[in-house]
Amino acid sequence: MTTTINVEGMSCGHCEQTVEDALREVSGVTDVTVDRESEQASVNGEADVSALVEAVEDAGYTAHARV
Q: Per the UniProt record, which residue ranges are transmembrane (predicted)?
């Protein structure tokens, strides 16, 4: 399953990497792609959406699950 998360506040490649690293730490995540220009992260796997949003917010960014 692929989940898309809207991520606000990324301004550079380091930001993308920080968000990607945070999402990869969530249980059930198998792959992550982060794009600061579209302000989105695509997450593959069976991770809980609220855990994904929490991981991004804990990394210092604003996140919302796309419905």
A: none
Q: What is the CATH number of the domain that holds 43?
A: 3.30.70.100
Beta bridge partners of 4: 42
Q: Does residue 32 sit in helix, strand or coil?
A: strand
Confidence of residue 66 (pLDDT cuts 50, 70, 90): confident
Query: What's the structural domain count of the chain?
Result: 1
- Characterize 33-59 residue by residue with b for buried, 16 or more Cβ atoms within 10 angstroms of its Cβ, and e for exposed: ebebeebebbbebebeeeebbebbeeb
Q: What is the pTM of this model?
A: 0.94
**Which tens digit of pLDDT belongs to each residue from 14-59?**
999 999 999 999 999 999 999 999 999 999 999 999 999 999 999 9
**By residue range, what is the domain housing residue 21?**
2-65
